[in-house]
Design a protein that fits this description.
homodimer; alpha+beta; Glutaredoxin; Glutathione S-transferase Yfyf (Class Pi), Chain A, domain 2; 4-stranded mixed sheet; Thioredoxin-like_sf (chains A, B); transferase (chains A, B)
């Protein structure tokens, strides 16, 4: 089989989701790094050959290109225990993955990127004006997660790890870099500790 | 089997995705309407019993609740020809569904809601300031779709309809209500016409 190539930016939680999924499954990835702060995913070559949407991550299998972090994680995990066999549980896993991209990532990942990577002084006026809304949206998403974990069986879908946990973990466990206080969310903190104990776990910096 | 209940707001494209998926598959839904303009999905009863995230749609099967439009559509279509059997195609379908929730819906659906339902005069200052960014983001998403359809085989994944088409169609075909000019996107316009010819098709107003 041709090597599986990950076009990525290591610090991105979206890219880390794919690396963590592969690590938990024992799948090797051939990694290609792009510096998004220098616009390396907006070059004509990247747009023509990797992703017309100008974003990483993209998972490449031969000449097939798969953008979108949660879809790429799904491809890696398809047929594995990281995707529940039960029909409702499988859809419920996707429910949390769509929640992650709609309610969580645009708030928590964006604030982390702005505050820890771009730097507050370098933000535009429009970005600065958007901070309070993203702060409130991120805390609302964390509150939904906290309630679900507090009332549940330890993971987002039942009592075992699935892609829902991996995709939500990626930006949640570094939410402090975006100014969120995880100490206010004890069930989330217990869940983070459980993910770190998963066999094969790697850190975002690995 | 218990009836499948759709908690919804008819005008929402997110709810329409689920109705259209069900219609194409010949599945009956028991519909419950909530007026989101009156806050009916933020009441204590709704938050406690239907969705702690305060949003519609939610698909209910017995006592199982499934929020997130794309996940609910996946549950309905699981095992049907609306989800490709090929591993890459299945992940590629999800790729477009995640693109829809991240790049498309927050721009195109939000502008439609603000301009056609809330009304421009009733918008807050922050909403008004966000219009240009959402206009540019929506046109960028439509441009990615246009290129993909122009270079492809008629649908988002290969040459037949899948959930990717249904989920992208829901807000694209009414994008003019958000001030987008679909006349500038001929491949999208041909694809919209093809979706309308699908056996079992229903309109968003049905």
């Amino acid at each position: 089989m041709a090597p599986i190539i990950l076009h990525e930016y290591t610090n991105s939680g979206n890219c880390y989701k794919i690396r963590l999924t592969a690590a938990l499954l024992g799948i090797a990835l051939d990694r290609r790094e792009y510096d998004i702060l220098k616009g390396e995913t907006r070059t004509p070559g990247f747009l023509a050959n990797v992703n017309a949407n100008g974003r990483i991550p993209v998972l490449q299998m031969g000449d097939q290109m798969l953008p979108e972090s949660n879809a790429a994680s799904f491809w890696l995990a398809d047929g594995s225990p990281l995707i529940p066999a039960d029909r409702f549980d499988r859809a419920d896993m996707l429910r949390w993955m769509f929640f992650e991209q709609y309610n969580h990532e645009p708030n928590i990942a964006t604030l982390r990127f702005w505050l820890a990577f771009v730097g507050e002084d370098a933000l535009t006026e429009a970005q600065r004006a958007a901070i309070p809304g993203k702060r409130a949206g991120g805390d609302a998403a964390l509150a939904v997660m906290e309630k679900h974990l507090r009332d549940g069986q330890g993971y987002f879908v039942g009592d075992r790890i699935s892609l829902a946990d991996i995709c939500l973990y990626a930006y949640t466990h570094v939410a402090d870099e975006g100014g969120f206080d995880l100490g206010a969310y004890p069930a989330i903190s217990r869940w983070i500790a459980a993910i770190k104990r998963a066999p094969g776990y790697i850190a975002i910096t690995d």
